[in-house]
Design a protein that fits this description.
The complex is a heterodimer. In chain A, the strands form two sheets. A four-stranded parallel beta sheet of chain A has the order 4-3-5-6. Chain A is globular, with a radius of gyration of 21 Å. Chain A is of the alpha/beta class. Chain A is built from eight helices and six strands. Chain A folds into two domains: 49 residues, Helicase, Ruva Protein, domain 3; 130 residues, Dna Topoisomerase Vi A Subunit, Chain: A, domain 2. Chain B has two domains: 172 residues, P-loop containing nucleotide triphosphate hydrolases (Rossmann fold, 3-Layer(aba) Sandwich), CATH 3.40.50; 160 residues, RecF/RecN/SMC, N-terminal domain (Glutathione S-transferase Yfyf (Class Pi), Chain A, domain 2), CATH 1.20.1050.90. Chain B has a six-stranded antiparallel beta sheet, covered by helices on one side. In chain B, helix 9 links the parallel strand 12 and strand 13. At the A-B interface, helix 7 and helix 8 of A face helix 4 and helix 5 of B.
């Protein structure tokens, strides 16, 4: 009976720190790890330790990477004149998966958020400015999230970059491809209407 | 639009409730503290996800209980509509026609209600924040564009205020939050201006009807006029904002003024005039919602008859457009007032138990 088992409680709490994991799921995961063969748990714990030890941020784009500079930054086939700015590493994964983007990335590791104490110094804004100052960059595409914080960050970046002679663009927001209009929510639709393009 | 059936379990002091009002005027009578207002509150919570009496939802659940459930069946002009809310330990789940709704904002506007409570006279007499809340609540029901802009505006305002108070403040950072406020604030000002103008048309008529000809006007008073522009106003006020650590200009300081015979109702109107003016506003809302959505809202009047003389209560009921479903509560027990004569159905509530008469 797992009543009063502090190590179990500790495990559940540790799992709950993961995004999207609530109390029930954490318990289920913990019970699974404890009832499965010991090697399975061992493998997970080693995978976490190894990944943590090997993965760091890229010294150029600040994305997470095992090799520094990262595969994108060191690739000879990418267009070095275009930088796409995202809030989180998840953003680069999403855009890479979409294919089609041939430029480089820059990961801010957040957005401007005074309530959480995040200003430009907490983000990697200075590193981005330094990259642009080197002079190879023609365009910066700001792909921060469509939240109040993401929009404020986009505006901030466009103003900071405005004096540097590069084109600054914002990704479009609108109706998902292949989706009927009826599936888009009201806010997305009205945004899509406002941002319409001439045919 | 009308409510055909309401059931509630575990809500306030109500015994398991089944309430089947008639399409027209319904009177709910009972002594104080028997549950009249709770019946109206249950309807309100079901369709707006909030209570007019409290922001602490835990107060809504019966003592010693952990959950409540409210279900309502409505008849719209085109089709029937089922709404359901299950509240359990501070989480609530809404269903519309049996389908779980992911976001609370998805249920707003499915069923429109107009609610008048005795404390709504504060709409006339009270602080501007109450009139803003009125505008926000009504417009959020009518326009998803407004609701979205309001949410974004409030988020940006909190962020800007935090920035003003923090030690990381600089002009270029304030600039971007100013721009966000200006963008979303412009939507608020535009929609509020249009709303108050329409409200004014309807309120004037309703007021003239109840008050026998006395003229009332509603005028929108934006804190920053569209001609000045919010971004410019914020820039001008910036030094003061920094000193006080708060944003002093913008739609979060808007108001609208009610004028009775050329004098501000807030300062000059008598108690009875203020009550009549507040009722006229609510009736204006009824007309306005009909004009915008093609469907009359459900009108709920909590305890208004007790404060009106026979002449005014008769005129009030005359001012309610035919076809509007209206639920009135009253403590009066004699059937002599004109309201009782006009009623299509009467209910009595006693100790949380409701029965049709």
């Amino acid at each position: 009976m797992l009543v009063n088992a502090p190590s179990m409680e500790e495990l559940v709490e540790a799992l709950r720190c993961l995004p999207g994991v609530g109390k029930r799921s954490a318990e289920r995961m913990a019970l699974h790890l404890l009832s499965a063969p010991a090697e399975e748990a061992q493998r997970l714990s080693e995978a976490i330790t190894t990944a943590r030890a090997r993965i760091r941020t890229c010294s150029i784009c600040c994305d997470l990477t095992e090799a520094d500079p990262c595969a994108v930054c060191s690739s000879g086939r990418r267009d070095r004149g275009v930088i796409c700015v995202v809030e989180r590493p998840a953003g680069t994964i999403a855009i890479e998966r979409g294919g089609g983007f041939q430029g480089l990335y820059h990961v801010l590791h957040g957005a401007l958020n005074p309530l959480e104490g995040a200003g430009p110094d907490e983000l990697t804004v200075n590193r981005l400015m330094a990259r642009v100052d080197k002079g190879d960059v023609r365009e910066v595409i700001v792909a921060t999230n469509a939240t109040a914080e993401g929009e404020a960050t986009a505006l901030y970046l466009s103003r900071q970059l405005g004096t540097k002679g590069v084109a600054v663009s914002r990704i479009a927001h609108g109706v998902p491809m292949g989706g009927g209009l009826e599936y888009a929510d009201d806010a997305t639709l009205s945004h899509a209407l406002e941002g319409r393009v001439r045919l | 639009m009308h409510l055909t059936s309401l059931t509630a379990e575990g809500f306030r002091c109500l015994e398991p409730l089944t309430f089947e009002p008639a399409p027209g005027v319904n009177i709910l009578r009972g002594d104080n503290a028997q549950g009249k207002t709770s019946v109206l509150e249950a309807v309100l919570f079901l369709v707006t996800a909030r209570s007019h009496r409290t922001n602490t939802e835990r107060e809504l659940v019966q003592r010693d209980a952990e959950s409540f459930r409210i279900r309502g069946a409505f008849q719209r002009s085109d089709r029937p509509l089922q709404m359901e809310v299950n509240w359990w330990r501070n989480t609530k789940r809404f269903k519309v026609n049996g389908v779980t709704q992911d976001r609370v904002s998805d249920i707003l506007g499915k069923v429109n209600v107009v609610f008048f409570a005795p404390e709504d006279v504060a709409l006339i007499r009270g602080a501007g924040s109450l009139r803003r809340r009125f505008l926000d609540m009504e417009l959020s029901q009518l326009s998803s564009r407004y609701l979205h802009a309001l949410q974004r505006y409030r988020e940006s305002l909190r962020q800007r205020n935090e920035l003003l108070r923090g030690d990381k403040m600089d002009d270029s950072l304030l600039d971007v939050w100013d721009a966000q406020l200006a963008q979303h604030g412009a939507v608020l000002v535009e929609e509020r201006g249009r709303f108050v103008q329409e409200l004014n048309e309807h309120a004037r008529q309703a007021h003239a009807c109840i008050a026998g000809g006395e003229a009332m006007t509603a005028v929108y008073a934006p804190n920053v006029s569209p001609e000045t522009g919010l971004e410019a106003a914020l820039r001008k006020a910036r030094q003061g904002d920094i000193k006080r650590g708060a944003t002093n200009r913008g739609p979060h300081r808007d108001d609208f003024e009610l004028v009775l015979e050329d004098r501000p109702a807030r300062n000059y109107a008598s108690q009875g005039q203020q009550r009549t003016a507040a009722l006229a506003l609510k009736l204006a809302e009824v007309a306005l919602i009909e004009a915008r959505t093609g469907e009359y809202p459900l009108l709920m009047l909590d305890d208004v008859l007790s404060e009106l003389d026979a002449k005014r209560s008769r005129r009030l009921l005359e001012a309610v457009p035919p076809g509007v479903q209206c639920i009135l509560t009253t403590t009066e027990n004699d059937g002599g007032t004109p309201a009782f004569e006009a009623a299509d159905a009467q209910f009595v509530i006693d100790g949380g138990c409701l029965a049709r008469r």
